[in-house]
Amino acid sequence: MFEMKSILNRPATVWSCILGMMVLLYGCQTQVYVSEASSEGVKFKKILILPFNDVIQKSGESMDSRCPVCGQVFMSGEVADGAANFLTDQSLAWFKQHTDYELIFKRSREGSLTAFYSANQTTVAAKKALADKGRDNDAEVVLVGFVYRFRERVGKGYGAESPASVAFAMHLIRVADGRTIWSAHFDETQKSLGDDLFQLGSFLSRGGRWLTAEELAMSGLEKIFEKFPKS
């Protein structure tokens, strides 16, 4: 009894314990990004990087969109102007800073990837088209990305009316056989602690505020590239 009263008389200790338990609980939760088909042992030097594609702009879909490369369906939505260019530029910057790959960058002509969004297009045909593009540019692998949602927050960092929401995917295709040797996707709509207490760790690491769509996307890129094949 004495020990219980002693603890209750120290509110700072109690709250520290509660906070610690919540952080531990958060640490056991699954993150909202996925990295698949890690290519351990797959070696390459020349990588063709294609610009991110705004799926909504190219497909015309506004609800659910199918990835032309893997076939997975994503909940799509508003994609802010410049989102595809932002993700492309940030990806290029990461490769230049963190790898020694020989980068080949091509900004595709408008409509050059339109065939990916045909209702009858198969994932095999899409990967073959990417492999052919890589072969034309003397690359060993091709990296392509698709943005499905890039909605900006409404409001300020400490008082948003509506949170940022971002979803994108990336695929690495081997030119020799058109096989996917690495792929990943990120999909998150930032939540308040009131909506999800398990987000405490993420909320605190982000400064306890609402992120912009660009900041949320950067968070996703950093997590995804942690598992990108090492050069």
Q: Give the amount of beta strand, in percent.
A: 25-35%
CATH superfamily of the largest domain: ABC-type transport auxiliary lipoprotein component
Low-confidence stretches: 1-8, 12-32, 193-198
Given the structure, what is the number of helices? 7
> What name does the CATH topology of the largest domain carry?
Rossmann fold
What is the count of β-strands? Answer: 11
Report the helical percentage.
25-40%
C-alpha-based Rg, rounded: 21 Å
Intertermini distance: 60 Å
**Category from helices, strands and their pairing:** alpha/beta
The biggest beta sheet is recorded as: 7 strands, mixed
Helix and strand string, N-terminal first? HHEEEHEEHEHEEEEEHH
